[in-house]
Design brief:
Chains A, B: It comes from Streptomyces koelreuteriae. Chains A, B: This is DJ-1/PfpI family protein. The structure is a homodimer. With about 210 residues, chain A is α/β, with parallel strands linked by helices. Chain A has helices spanning about 15-20, 80-90, 100-110, 155-165, 170-175, 195-205, 205-210; strands at about 1-5, 30-35, 40, 50, 55, 65, 95-100, 115, 135, 140, 145-150. In chain A, the strands form three sheets. In chain A, strands 5-2-1-6-7-11-10 form a seven-stranded mixed beta sheet, sandwiched between helices. A two-stranded antiparallel sheet of chain A has the order 3-4. In chain A, β3 (about 40) and β4 (about 50) form a beta hairpin. In chain A, α1 (about 15-20) packs parallel to α4 (about 155-165) and α4 packs antiparallel against α5 (about 170-175). The longest helix of chain A is centred in the last third of the chain and has 14 residues, at about 155-165. In chain A, about 60% of the residues are buried. Chains A and B meet through α1, β2, β4, α4 and α5 of A and α1, β2, β4, α4 and α5 of B.
């Protein structure tokens, strides 16, 4: 089993590392970080770099595709080298997944037409442009497509898919190993729960806050 | 404000990236990944590398120190170049923090003597050897020392400290931006909550499961 996690300039690190630390602990699986070119790939702030060990062209047939989100997604929505790879990889994949705005890349590749899917709450409606049906759930499974909401939701997605593939015991073992017993100091993780002025602040300054 | 996140061979990626995506969004702060040598640093599985952009010696006076855990911690418990840097950085820091077994490195440097602290649940008792008082809390603050439990707890630690430094509104804004509204598919994130046979399986195979 091969898991390919796609990197691109200005991705969001936790989008990639959340599924990595959960789904990536699938027994007998090889996880590879892939990008158009091998080498360090910088996130949206520029002060973090994850290494792409393989080029997209070196990984044509992953069993599981994971596409993280991040501000860099916007400039790739018509970038055929990536979209072509996503289409080809998806043609042979068992599972095609995304976190945050990664779903917009899957949608732009034409893979989510007629599918229920999710994205970061600020970009959810954009899925409609590509024929997908946005939902407010944190993790959405429609056939072999598993999309997750913003940034940290990739942890929940990774555990969910891990349980589906490897069984509940293994998923719980990974949850225990990563001590994923969340105790956020606030209850502000969704626009329904956060104080209204905080939601408004983020809506009006998303371009600054999220890059 | 400068935040230094320490990398070393066989660290655990989410331990570093959790605080990075939360605490690292502190306004007007610079976050730097540091290691003994600059360049890619591999995690415990070897299939993920984060770049250390600066050497420890280039970052002598960080305001906040973050030490992630991971299996590589074990071989560093008497490694003076790192322990010396931790002592010197701590002497000038405003906050000295850790995730998972990172607290054992702080303890080995002599920084947690007489302090309440935490670690991954499997290694919690080891803190006593260094004069620290282990607690079962997820995030423990004692003076300027903030230690977090296993792997994913660094997200909660990062948000907690962010709120303390930048205020509740900003921390909630970051929680909303990262859509940290956890919905784990299982409730197995601590030894008290996970099924007994899963706890036992992890205890007996920790060396395999966690590397």
């Amino acid at each position: 089993m091969q898991i390919a996690i796609v990197l691109y300039d200005r991705f969001t690190a936790l989008d990639a590392v959340g599924p990595y630390e959960t789904l990536g602990r699938l027994p007998d699986a090889e996880t590879v970080f892939v990008a158009e070119r091998t080498g360090p790939v910088r996130n949206e702030t520029g002060n973090l770099a994850l290494t792409a060990d393989r080029a997209l062209s070196d990984v044509p047939n992953p069993d599981i595709v994971v596409v993280p989100g991040g501000p860099g997604q916007e400039s790739l929505m018509t970038h055929e080298p990536l979209l072509d790879w996503l289409r080809a990889a998806d043609a042979g994949s068992t599972w095609t997944t995304s976190v945050c705005t990664g779903s917009l890349l899957l949608a732009a590749a034409g893979l989510l037409r007629g599918r229920r899917a999710t994205s970061h709450w600020l970009t959810l409606e954009q899925l409609k442009r590509y024929g997908a049906e946005p939902t407010g759930e944190r993790v959405v499974t429609d056939g072999k497509y598993v999309t997750a909401a913003g940034v940290s939701s990739g942890i929940d997605m990774g555990l969910t898919l891990l349980g589906r593939i490897a069984g509940d015991d293994h998923a719980q073992l990974v949850q225990l190993a990563t001590e994923y017993d969340p105790q956020p100091p606030y209850d502000a993780g969704s626009p329904e729960k956060a104080p209204a002025h905080v939601v408004e602040l983020l809506r009006s300054h998303a371009d600054v806050m999220l890059t």
